[in-house]
């Protein structure tokens, strides 16, 4: 008896009603990338009902190559975010049952982004000066300042349209453990500003050929109330985290974690735990869609990554037992055809697959926290403070 919750990082399906408030009017990650790639080949996701979701949305755009099917294998719906924000922590926390209003602090986009007292204290405590101090694409700012960083040893510190304080350092200049220590200092200092994440961004290579490594770590703000994962553990239900989930939730509400660094290793870990574990929640994030393709505005690469995941799903679905539930969703959008390099405020997909169970339309859910309420209901926990369940309790 397991629920496998897979967050397909940044696979939005169309602009949310309040997208204009966030500067994201007209964004539609999945339909736009499919069109840019000349069509998407995802037969498993299509059979589950991915193409059917677009018919639920006001002005929903078709997904080229993934049309609706007559009899979807999964229940299908869409979710609209209620919390203020369009970042990883906000999306995942709402999925886990929380609501973030007001949202996390977003720093100014232009230099200097960070408050002088924050910079001064961080430099003093970390023992190094900072470069950057502005909003930027991670790959772009490393190319811009990487050589100077290697010469001076100063941190490359930058933000984005999300609530983040990011610190980049070359692994041959600053060891990864020392970078993590600096991030712990920054995390402590950023708490007073209610910053969603401090992110370690290690990289390697030479000027003109820098490359970020998979030693990234996220240091998240700690939630003020318990998530559904914490409630599960209190009830004796184990929670298994794959990928960056443990970081997003500040290592709370997790029984065991496998901190994988890319989609394929996460898929391998999910498959292994699905075979091994008899009961519990397996919670994962497939990071490549967002980190490797969305932010870098690589629509064709994004499409190929979805197709790889679709092929994996074909081998994965037979591992599920009759008392297992697979939930596929996303945390926000990141339209690779859109302006800039940041996340986009969009509806996200909801596919709920139970082997042998009839599928049904789930409509547009007001709040990602319907997932948390459904997890609680399935495992027989008391109701969460928010949300409406789309699952029934198992005997």
Q: Characterize the main sheet.
A: 9 strands, mixed
- Structural class, from helix and strand content? alpha/beta
Low-pLDDT stretches are: none
Which second-level CATH architecture of the largest domain applies? Answer: 3-Layer(aba) Sandwich
Please state the oligomeric state of the protein chains shown.
Answer: single chain
CATH topology of the largest domain: Alkaline Phosphatase, subunit A
Radius of gyration: 20 Å
Please supply descriptive tags for the structure shown above.
395 residues; alpha/beta; Alkaline Phosphatase, subunit A; Alpha-Beta Plaits; 2 domains; 6-stranded mixed sheet; 15 strands
Describe this structure in words.
With 395 residues, the protein is α/β, with parallel strands linked by helices. It has helices spanning 29-36, 43-48, 50-53, 88-95, 116-126, 138-152, 176-190, 228-234, 245-248, 263-276, 288-294, 299-316, 370-378, and strands at residues 2-8, 14-15, 75-80, 130-135, 155-159, 164-170, 197-204, 211-212, 217-220, 239-242, 256-258, 280-286, 325-329, 346-353, 361-366. Strands 1, 2, 3, 10, 11, 12, 13, 14 and 15 form a 9-stranded mixed β-sheet that branches. The radius of gyration is 20 Å and the shape is globular. The protein starts with a strand and ends in a 17-residue tail after the last helix. The relative contact order is 0.22. The model has no long low-confidence stretch (mean pLDDT 96).
């Amino acid at each position: 008896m397991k629920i496998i919750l897979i967050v397909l990082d940044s696979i939005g399906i169309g602009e949310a009603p309040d997208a204009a408030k966030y500067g994201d009017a007209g964004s539609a990650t999945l339909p736009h990338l499919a069109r840019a790639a000349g069509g998407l080949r995802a037969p498993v996701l299509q059979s589950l009902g991915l193409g059917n979701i677009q018919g639920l949305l006001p002005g929903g755009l078709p997904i080229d190559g993934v049309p609706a099917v007559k009899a979807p294998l999964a229940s299908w719906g869409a979710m609209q975010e209620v919390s203020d924000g369009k970042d990883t922590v906000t999306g995942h926390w709402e999925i886990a049952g929380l609501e973030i209003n007001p949202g996390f602090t977003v720093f100014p986009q232009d230099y200097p982004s960070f408050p002088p007292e924050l910079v001064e204290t961080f430099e003093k405590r970390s023992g190094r000066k900072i470069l950057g101090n502005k909003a930027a694409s991670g790959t772009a700012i490393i190319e811009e300042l990487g050589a100077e960083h290697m010469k001076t040893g100063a941190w490359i510190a930058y933000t984005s349209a999300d609530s983040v304080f990011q610190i980049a350092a070359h692994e041959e200049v600053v060891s990864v453990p020392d970078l993590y220590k600096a991030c712990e200092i920054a995390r402590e200092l950023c708490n007073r500003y209610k910053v969603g994440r401090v992110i370690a961004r290690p990289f390697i290579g030479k000027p003109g050929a820098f490359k970020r490594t998979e030693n990234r770590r996220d240091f998240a703000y700690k939630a003020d109330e318990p998530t559904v994962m914490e409630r599960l553990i209190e009830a004796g239900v184990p929670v298994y985290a794959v990928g960056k989930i443990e970081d997003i939730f500040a290592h709370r509400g997790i029984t065991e974690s496998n901190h994988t660094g890319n989609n394929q290793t996460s898929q391998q870990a999910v498959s292994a735990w699905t075979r091994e574990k008899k009961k519990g929640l397996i919670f994962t994030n497939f990071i490549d869609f967002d980190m490797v393709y969305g932010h870098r505005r690589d629509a064709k690469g994004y499409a190929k990554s979805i197709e790889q995941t679709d092929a994996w799903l074909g081998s994965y679905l037979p591992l599920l037992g009759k008392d297992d539930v697979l939930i596929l969703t996303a945390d926000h959008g990141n339209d690779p055809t859109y302006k800039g390099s940041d996340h986009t405020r969009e509806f996200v997909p909801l596919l709920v697959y139970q082997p042998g169970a009839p599928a049904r339309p789930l409509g547009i859910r007001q709040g990602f926290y319907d997932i948390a309420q459904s997890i609680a209901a399935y495992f027989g926990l008391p109701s969460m403070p928010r949300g409406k369940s789309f699952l029934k309790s198992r005997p």
